[in-house]
Write a structure and sequence with these properties.
The structure is a single chain. The chain is α+β, with helices and mostly antiparallel strands. The chain is 25% helix and 33% strand. It has a seven-stranded mixed beta sheet, sandwiched between helices. The protein has a five-stranded antiparallel beta sheet with strand order 4-3-2-1-5, with no helix packed on it. β2 and β3 form a beta hairpin. It is elongated. Bound molecules: coenzyme A. The site of coenzyme A (COA) has 18 residues, from β9, α4 and β10.
Length: 245
């Protein structure tokens, strides 16, 4: 009998609204080969489409006939960028700027975008990571070495795929690269009061870097941001030291 489910399928229990994710399937001798049995994680509520995969409280075994298929969870991946990705990344950065509408900054953020040559450099030197959904780019992070640290120049995720942990996964890919290159920290420049900027980076282990601790290169970088027309009111530099977490 062909298997009805495979790992990654979101299912509900036929008799209740409990739901879970199939983690393993196997043919059941106990059931005379008529049905497969499944180990699934279950919890009380169906996650909304686009929400993060459930982190459910327990594992249970069910016959396939007692489960109903809902959908497959979408496979995300983080990988180094290739030159073929670059056009998509430009569009992602522009689209991500819409999040700044409540702050009156959407237009400037969609206009002052990462120079193409910086993306090309990142794809060449390994400092550019892409988040993909079913192989299609939906987010990216660009970083370059600066003063013994890796500086995160740009981070964007398409709004339709926001708040599922992709931004965090991209930041961690940059942190991991810094560690592999024996660098001491990751630095970045961001806005103090936008919730998905400084407050969010604080939750990821970054601290605001006092102005008297800015290196000459960081000062140059901030001056360059101002010259490009990026909003500078409320701007802060942040740093995550790599031996801290
Ligand atoms: C920053 C960005 C890349 C994060 O991507 P993401 O995939 O949504 O990131 P995550 O899902 O890992 O975390 C997002 C966090 O931002 C915060 N956040 C996002 N939207 C928010 C909102 N409307 N209100 C409050 N907090 C919000 C939350 O802390 C959220 O975490 P949570 O969902 O666990 O509460 C994305 O918001 C983006 O592209 N923004 C526009 C460009 C930008 O600001 N880049 C960074 C500039 S330094």
């Amino acid at each position: 009998m062909p298997s009805l489910f495979s790992p990654g399928d979101l299912v509900t229990l036929a008799s209740t609204d409990e739901c879970g994710v199939i983690v393993h399937t196997w043919p059941s001798a106990e059931l005379g080969g008529l049905e497969d049995c499944y180990v699934a994680f279950f919890r009380a509520e169906l996650p909304a489409p686009g929400a993060a995969p459930p982190r459910p409280p327990y594992v249970a075994r069910y016959a396939a006939t007692s489960l109903r298929h809902v959908r497959r969870l979408e496979p995300f991946a983080i990988r180094p960028a290739t030159p073929a990705d670059l056009d998509a990344l430009v569009s992602i950065e522009r689209a991500a700027a819409v999040r700044f509408e409540p702050f009156g900054l959407a237009d400037v953020m969609a206009t002052v975008v990462t120079p193409r040559e910086d993306l090309e450099r990142g794809a060449r030197d390994g400092g550019l990571f892409v988040a993909t959904l079913d192989g299609v780019p939906v987010g990216f992070a660009l970083a370059h070495p600066l003063d013994g640290a890796l500086h995160l120049d740009e981070l964007d995720v398409l709004p339709a795929h926001g708040r599922r942990g992709l931004g965090r996964a991209l930041v961690e890919a940059v942190v991991d690269l810094a560690r592999r290159r024996d660098l001491t920290a990751v630095t970045l420049s961001t806005l103090r009061s936008v919730p998905w900027n400084a407050p969010w980076y604080t939750r990821l282990g970054f601290h605001v870097l006092a102005e008297n601790a800015w290196t000459p290169h960081l000062r140059e970088l901030v001056a360059h941001e101002a010259a490009r027309g990026l909003p500078m009111t409320d701007r802060v530099l942040m740093r995550r030291l790599l031996d801290e977490r």
